[in-house]
């Protein structure tokens, strides 16, 4: 194991970029002042950070999974705009004492997730640039770029873009992927901090089902292909802060009310019941805890879409409710708070 | 003064984005999963981070200047590719206890620098997205996007792009802006930590010339307009790590040797002599210290370009040397080390 401080910046960059795959859109890749790439259509761009002690802790740190998570949360955001990812910029701050093998694992995770998304969506997603800095805390800031629609088309359906603002009363609400699993995994990780589980997520001493929930927290695997199967939608959002919050954002942006069909969530709740039984306290039943994960837990990076109702939902999607006139979110008609996660109190 | 923890994330975003100016290229701005913008030509992208205790310390922290610096270092990188900046993504991690007024000052600094660059280069540079997170350390990660050349032109002169790799023997070396001033300012700040100066950079108790050097460290002001005046060049680079290092990068990428004309640097050295006299130790003279700032100090964000010699240099540029066959960097023929700054030891 070799620490970064023994290698120097240029050797570190060489090692970590050895995992990268280039793309036919790349004119100038990493190594100059900036990258240059050929784009077709409008540009889609999004940036997200993962910060130590805020989004993960050293005690759960698995560098490869952290890379997967950092890439997934950014690629999801590009994907739900109806766009194809185009490339990633990866800025990284890590302590001097970090081992190069750990950093390589992080980049291998980023590249693996970018390749998975590229395979599902039929595009190439190279790392085209970034920055490397030393720091007391681990911080990963990724920018994901994408392209959508025809070049120069800036009106008429927003140039092929699907926003949060297009849902209409009467639309059905569809979900791809899962919700609640990462939140259950997070609670299991916190419980594990009390010594309940082993340190390595692959060697939890817990059963395989619980381990899979923790994996969803550490390395979410968005169902990018589902977005390709959907074709189009009136609105779309990545569920990063929880169903209630993110559906609330669509409702607010579109000026509609979103009613969730409680029965449609049962298939999502059932697989969480063993973990919920494991963690439920006297004040809350396992069923209530599992429902709260499904309603309020983000980070699986499921996708929500609204659309006129399909006879049969597209591959990967399930119908979970309906848009109506009004505002806010409800569950079988009963209002659901949409406050969600905030980084800063309140 | 109000702390972020009293406001909640959405109110914080509202306050800081109130400083933003939109642009005609923006189809979907901040607030959806990703931004969508209309681009003409090839895409230029670069990302840079500023990390507390690595790039600045609390004791010198001036939020507005930090915003200027963060924007300037990214905009410079776009500019030296021969490109026009298109937009910024700003990801920010700050402690919960940060005051909203400080964050507003940071964003006001970013916006002010983006507007200054836009005015000099004839383009609009809005903040189009980003992320906000709480953290134990202050981290600012900015991605700057730009456009260059005609869409789809991916060969023949790299589609209008100026890289580090095009310098030829016989080209003259030109510099725009300054070098060495930020490095002198940094040494003054470190000296100040011993109590020599007052805390506020505007109230240093030092004379105005020394204060200006510190200002260059805290809030560099790249001469973006000079790049517009240059027209084209065989190679270009932003001097972020020092003349010797960055000129060494051009020499290495282009397969040439770069010889600096010592006499041409005197105009850059002279203004640094008062600060150098202030700080020089027994082992180094003021002249030696000032020369080392000019050769090895980065962060003024001067621009280096190589080109066939001009009769009269374009506005903002001075000739400082010549490219020759060979490799490495020399000063009046004597080899200069190009090791430069590394974030990780060695």
UniProtKB/TrEMBL annotation, chains A, B:
Entry keywords, A to Z: ATP-binding, Kinase, Magnesium, Metal-binding, Nucleotide-binding, Thiamine biosynthesis, Transferase
PurM-like C-terminal domain: from which residue to which, for each copy? Answer: 168-269
Residues annotated for Mg(2+) 4 binding in this entry: 33, 46, 77
Q: Where is this region: Disordered?
A: 326-346
Query: Where in the numbering of this chain does the PurM-like N-terminal domain appear?
Result: 31-148
Q: Name one GO molecular function term.
A: magnesium ion binding
- The residues the record assigns to binding Mg(2+) 2 are 48, 77
Q: Which InterPro entries match?
A: PurM-like_C_dom, PurM-like_C_sf, PurM-like_N, PurM-like_N_sf, ThiL-like
> Record-annotated residues binding Mg(2+) 3?
33, 77, 238
UniProt pathway:
Cofactor biosynthesis; thiamine diphosphate biosynthesis; thiamine diphosphate from thiamine phosphate: step 1/1
Binding residues annotated for ATP, in chain numbering: 130-131, 164, 240
User: GO terms for biological process?
Assistant: thiamine biosynthetic process; thiamine diphosphate biosynthetic process
- What general EC class does the enzyme of this chain belong to? transferase
Q: What is its EC number?
A: 2.7.4.16
One Pfam family hit = AIRS_C
Q: Where does Mg(2+) 5 bind?
A: 241
Q: Which residues bind Mg(2+) 1?
A: 48, 131
Family to which the UniProt record says this protein belongs:
Belongs to the thiamine-monophosphate kinase family.
Miscellaneous comment in the UniProt entry for this protein: Reaction mechanism of ThiL seems to utilize a direct, inline transfer of the gamma-phosphate of ATP to TMP rather than a phosphorylated enzyme intermediate.
Its function, per the record, reads: Catalyzes the ATP-dependent phosphorylation of thiamine-monophosphate (TMP) to form thiamine-pyrophosphate (TPP), the active form of vitamin B1.
**Name of this protein:** Thiamine-monophosphate kinase
């Amino acid at each position: 194991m070799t620490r970064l401080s023994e290698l120097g910046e240029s050797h570190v960059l060489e090692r970590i970029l050895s995992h990268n795959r280039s793309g036919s859109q790349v004119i100038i890749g990493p190594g100059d002042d900036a990258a240059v790439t050929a784009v077709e259509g409008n540009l889609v761009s999004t940036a997200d950070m993962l910060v130590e002690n805020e989004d993960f802790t050293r005690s759960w740190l698995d560098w490869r999974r952290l890379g997967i998570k950092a890439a997934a949360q950014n690629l999801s955001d590009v994907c739900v705009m109806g766009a194809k990812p185009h490339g990633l910029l990866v800025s990284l701050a890590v302590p001097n004492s970090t081992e190069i093998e750990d950093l390589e694992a992080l980049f291998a995770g980023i590249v693996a997730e970018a390749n998975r998304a590229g395979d599902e969506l039929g595009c190439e997603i190279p790392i085209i640039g970034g920055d490397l800095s030393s720091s007391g805390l681990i911080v990963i800031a990724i920018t994901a770029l994408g392209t959508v629609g025809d070049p120069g088309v800036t009106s008429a359906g927003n140039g092929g873009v699907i926003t949060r603002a297009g849902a209409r009363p009467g639309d059905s609400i569809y979900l791809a992927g899962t919700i609640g699993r990462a939140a259950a995994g997070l609670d299991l990780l916190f419980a594990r901090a009390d010594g309940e589980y082993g340190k390595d997520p692959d060697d939890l001493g817990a059963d395989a089902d619980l381990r899979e929930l923790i994996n969803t927290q550490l390395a979410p695997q968005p169902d990018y292909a589902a977005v390709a199967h959907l074709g189009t939608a009136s609105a779309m959002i990545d569920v990063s802060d929880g169903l209630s919050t993110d559906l609330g954002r669509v409702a607010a942006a579109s000026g509609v009310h979103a009613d969730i069909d409680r029965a449609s969530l049962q298939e999502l709740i059932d697989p969480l019941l063993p973990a919920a039984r494991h963690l439920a306290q006297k004040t809350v039943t396992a069923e209530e805890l599992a429902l709260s994960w499904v309603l309020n837990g983000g980070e699986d990076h499921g996708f929500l879409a609204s659309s006129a109702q399909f006879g049969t939902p597209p591959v990967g999607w399930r119908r979970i409710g309906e848009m109506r006139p009004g505002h806010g979110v409800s569950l079988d008609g009963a209002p659901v708070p949409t406050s969600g996660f905030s980084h800063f109190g309140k």
